[in-house]
Amino acid sequence: MPSSTPLDPPNLDTTVLIIGAGIGGLTLAATLRRLSIPCIVLERFDKITPVGAGISLAPNCLPALSQLGLLPTIAANSQELKKIRIHRENSEWKTLNWDLCKQWFGYNVYSIERHEFHNLLYEAAGKEETVRLGCAVEDIVDDARLPYVTVKMNGGRELRAQVVVGADGIRSVTRRIVSYWIRLLSCVVSVPPTLCTTG
Asked: Among 60, 73, 146, 168, which residue is least crowded by beta carbons within 10 Å?
């Protein structure tokens, strides 16, 4: 599957820069790769180490994973959750029947080891061809007069793209940088910035 196409306008390193190689960032990268839209994922750590032991994949995310071609592998390496029994001390308090999920939504809930799921997404995103480790983002420069955004990283490195997406979690560096520039530009620049937050 091709991972790159001719870039327009010139002087771009890629079309989409994704900050953060977590579940969200890798899923977006895998989707873009499937659509042959060039992208690069920037991860600040030198090694990808998923946090947590396991993860439950609910029916609302499984259609997207199915479109990425990952559902058969997920089903083979996970466990379908069909029933949950909740106990209080020595007695069973309640039973949740999750078989209804498949009846209502077409999928059951799958429970999979987080590192296994993360590795599947890493492979689908293009592995080291797409994901660049040890890239700590320090600034995002967006000039509405230019057809690209510049991302500045540690070591003086820079990359340019048409779109930059922050997927770097709850302590998001992207959110901090974007919030700073939105406040600054709204005060001193007549040209409206193209930076925006979605959540």
From this structure: 60
CA separation for the pair 117, 17 (Å, rounded): 22
What domains lie within the chain, and their CATH numbers?
16-49+128-188 (3.50.50.60), 54-124 (no CATH)
Question: End-to-end CA distance of the chain, in Å?
Answer: 32
C-alpha distances in Å from residue 129, one per residue of 21, 123, 133: 13, 10, 11
Q: Is the peptide bond before 9 cis (omega within 30 degrees of 0)?
A: yes
Which residue, among 33, 32, 29, 31, has the nearest Cα to 19 in the 3D structure? 29
Please list, in sequence order, all residues whose beta carbon lies within 8 angstroms of the beta carbon of residue 81, skipping any fewer than 6 positions away: 56, 98, 108, 109, 110, 111
At 155, the amino acid letter reads G
Q: pLDDT 10s digit of each residue in the chain, 199 long?
A: 444 454 556 689 999 999 999 999 999 999 999 999 999 999 999 988 767 789 999 999 999 999 999 999 999 999 988 888 888 888 888 888 888 888 888 888 999 999 999 999 999 999 999 999 999 999 999 888 888 999 999 999 999 999 999 999 888 999 888 887 766 655 555 545 555 555 5
